[in-house]
Amino acid sequence: MDEQTNQPASLDSLTPRQIVEELDRYVIGQRDAKRMVAIALRTRWRRQRLPADLRDEVMPKNIIMIGPTGVGKTEISRRLAKLTQAPFIKVEASKYTEIGYVGRDCESMVRDLVEQAVNMVKAEYAVRIQKKAEAQAEERLLDLLVPPPPPKTPPGIFDQASFEAHQPPPSETYEATRSKFRLLLREGKLDSRSVEIEVKDKASIPIGVISNVGGMEQIQDQLQEMLGGMFPGKKKRRTVKVPEALELLIQEEAQKLIDMEAVIKEAVAKTEQHGIIFLDEIDKNAGRERTLGPDVSREGVQRDLLPIVEGSTVTTKYGPVKTDHILFIAAGAFHVAKPSDLIPELQGRFPIRVELEPLTHRRPPALHDHGAVAGRDLLRSAGADRAEADDRRPGRAKPPEGHHQGRRSEPVHPVGGPMEELIKKANVLVEALPYIRAFAGKTVVLKYGGKAVTDPALKEGFATDVVLMKYVGLNPVVVHGGGPQIDKMLKRLSIEPKFRQGVRVTDEATMEIVEMVLGGTINKEIASLISRHRAKAVGLSGKDGGLIQAKPFTKAEWAKKLGADLSGWGEDEDYGFVGDVQAVDSSILKNLQATNAIPVIAPMGIGKDGRTYNINADLVAGAIAGALQAEKLVILTDVKGIKDEDGKLVSTLARKDVARMVKKGTISEGMLPKVQACLTALEGGVRKTHVIDGRMPHAILLEIFTDKGIGTEIVA
């Protein structure tokens, strides 16, 4: 491999894909995490090319990496910093304490980063002046090896010492002798000689500041530096070999040649524009339980971290440093706490979250370039050849001597253990094959709600199930809810959620929250999650392009659709900005499906009066399923299905059964919109509708691709 291939490509020419390839040279797997940091890096690169008045408007794409120890969180960040030649430090968030307590304050991480930047820039300057420093150090060393002759005595003055001094031969001048010694020095023929040189004794002044107020360490450093200038270190004489003397003199000359004011100015700019801080163990500060009294190690630290991550000015010994555009990469295992346990303001400053894959026993892919060469050279240094290296890989253990002697050949994979699990998986695929054929090219509308929207494991499972459906030929359409998230936001704003017969009463203030949570947060998160699993997902609201035309919700219309007498519920009440579906423009969804995309729809609509209406997600899913004449409508909820008067699960219901159970009150509250959605879908031509338990892993696949089915099906 030539030397040129060892050098990383210029950042100006690297696309996110190429940045990932650069990281692949050192870190195995973790493609999602690499893509996230590559996007953040590219955003920073683009920002540098904006006009100065727009540059400050672009905020860094801070990242939270979620994964157990040893999967590569730190290494990805460290290699990214090395690729960009950016100042980088790794700190443990758990070692910081709230201001006012003994321990390191959070601002010290910025001071450490500046110190790192100063050292980096200083090293760059040292390389530039290296040759000049070497030349001056060589001259100083020659002065020690060949002392210059004493100055000539002015005429008319007699100097006894000069008269008695040894005079060089007339044929050999001082300059000629010095040239000979220079040649011997460069050839290494003087390495065994010793010379006596003066070196500075930089003894630190024993100053300590004792206080429980954060930032005292900075004051201590400044005091030592100030008093160190008032009392410069003494010089002492040392006798060392010529090579060591030359190194010491080069360092001393380099210090004289480096312009520290320029170094500090460049280092501060490098910190502010290119610095990267890796905040490890951030989950240790995200405690779920609140304790009595001050919580030094958790929310207090988060509150101190917040202004630094948001952007503030930190005082350092090199001057004020702004943190507005420093890239923060937080990481943690989050096996006890969750990212949502961080304070909301801090969560908002980390817009990108990525889960890293855990380590497994499977053989990892080979490292490219440097990683492969380093691993091979490491084995060679231990005297191992390639065959030994192969035998040391997982799954390639060498059998002991005589292992097969006198024994019959046995099957490589006996039935049982891992092979039995593989056979079970194969049987599942065989069972699913007829259903895959039957549903190929058909549309299935999924109403995604309940705990499946909030639980991380269920969210991940839902995304993989939807992508699998797409890959085997189905056309899934996702309509999502978000009731728990809306309730949480309302309570945070001291607004009490109100429901009447399973319908959320939506005033103007509530409508703003609904639109923000459904369209601005949940919709984008679901689309992003599906896209992360290698499928094309498009998030949109029912308002977009007039997809859903809405009308005000009335109880009378609802009773008509349910086929039930709801007169006992009293008069119609004002539900505010609650709407019902009047029409669906299915051409928008069909156009998306034609591009092989999965639509992800937030349940809102636009009325003739231009007002935005909050529509129950079940009702939207039913109307869309009917408009698309879908093969199935599947509604995910937090119960096993619909139960009868005795509390037993009903596997199949007809329209007449629904009307009877609604009239008796067996079906009520939150189940009412679900059965109404099923009836609307059946009227539109949908063959079967299902209400299933979304808390069950892979509930969608069990319903569609097995002959047993789950939950309750409602048929015409």
Supply Rg: 37 Å
What is the overall silhouette? elongated
Percentage of residues assigned to helices: 40-55%
Number of strands: 23
Q: Decide which structural class fits the backbone.
A: alpha/beta
Biggest beta-sheet profile: 8 strands, mixed
Point out poorly predicted stretches. Answer: 1-10, 162-166, 207-215, 289-296, 384-416
Number of helices: 25
Spatially, the strands of the biggest sheet line up as 14-17-11-10-20-22-23-21
The proportion of residues in beta strands is: 15-25%
On the 0-100 scale, what is the average pLDDT? 77
Distance between the termini: 70 Å
List the helices and strands and how they pair.
Blueprint (H helix, E strand, L loop, with lengths): L15 H9 L6 H18 L3 H4 L7 E4 L6 H12 L3 E5 L15 H21 L1 H16 L14 H5 L9 H13 L7 E7 L15 H15 L4 E7 H16 L2 H15 L1 E5 L18 H12 L2 E4 L2 E4 L4 E6 L11 H5 L3 E4 L13 H13 L4 H6 L26 H22 L3 E6 L7 H16 L3 E6 L2 H10 L6 E2 L2 E2 L3 H25 L4 E5 L6 E5 L2 H8 L15 E7 L1 H9 L3 E5 L1 E4 L4 E4 L1 H12 L3 E6 L14 E3 H10 L6 H13 L4 E6 L5 H7 L6 E4 L1
Parallel strand pairs: 1-8, 1-9, 2-5, 5-8, 10-11, 10-20, 11-17, 14-17, 15-18, 16-19, 20-22, 21-23
Antiparallel strand pairs: 3-4, 6-7, 12-13, 15-16, 18-19, 22-23
Explain this structure to me?
By secondary structure, the protein is an alpha/beta fold. 44% of the residues lie in helices and 16% in strands. It contains 25 helices and 23 strands. The strands form six sheets. An eight-stranded mixed β-sheet has the order 14-17-11-10-20-22-23-21, sandwiched between helices. Strands 2-5-8-1-9 form a five-stranded parallel β-sheet, with helices on both faces. Strands 15-16-19-18 form a four-stranded mixed β-barrel. The protein is elongated. The two termini are 70 Å apart. The relative contact order is 0.08. Residues 1-10, 162-166, 207-215, 289-296 and 384-416 have low confidence and may be disordered.
